[in-house]
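Late entry, written up from scratch paper. The run itself happened at the end of the previous shift, but nothing got recorded in the book at the time, so transcribing now.
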Amino acid sequence: MGFEEGPFGLKFVKIEPCDVFLGEDRGAWVYASERPRHRVKLPQFLILESPITIAEYAQILGEEATGNGLKDMITNDEIDNVCKILSKHFDDEVRRPTQSEWEAARSQIKLPRGWTELLADEATGNHRGAPLDGRPRIGDMIGPLSGHRASQSAHPTREGVFACVTTPGDRPLPKVGFRIVVSPKREGSVPKVPDNANLLSNIKSEVFWTTILGIIPSFTIPILRGFNSYALDGWANLLFGGLCAGFVTGAFWRPKRPTWALDSNGEIIQLKD
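Output as recorded:
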């Protein structure tokens, strides 16, 4: 693990260029908010080993520290002000880590149990439209939710267990802190996961699997049990039952969805299994 000393005694971890997979490719409806799966290509960057402490925060602002431990009760605007001050000491971009950067560094950084860390990305309903080059996902949300951020939350009792959650960043909260990354500035248009799914393909898939897993068994079972007449007379009930069965199976299983990535030329592609 490589460390670099930064201004104000900040201790950074150097993360080498890497690829990180985010999201889910499982097709069941319960995973809809985690789709689509995509591979983010990250350049080399620096990330603080631990979230900013009260003493570090005060030193950056030129104030006297008024406590010990990590800095919490912080807002997006206050964090942006810290990044603006620190940016004078670096040529690269200074900001909070994105979800992909945090995942790339998770084995080399620390987040105390019970703490939540605000990331740079806005909190969105799924990964559609997510950048593939590791830059922050900003500007997709409007209204009150634009102040919410994707965050990493550490389990209150189990060490090394984290969950990605949504946290308000426009008001101070206890045990909600932040850390800084120094990452190369991205130029040009944003390479993104496609904003829309293939609706026609999804409808065809849903009709097929609902028929195979729901409707056909619904009619086959009474026939195999010798109730051939009911398969004709009660077709409406059997059809409704088959549709319900198909709906339930769709909640837990459907074929995998595409995984998106950038190729060597920077073009957006679907990865094959």
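The longest helix spans residues 199-224.
(Scratch paper discarded after transcription.)
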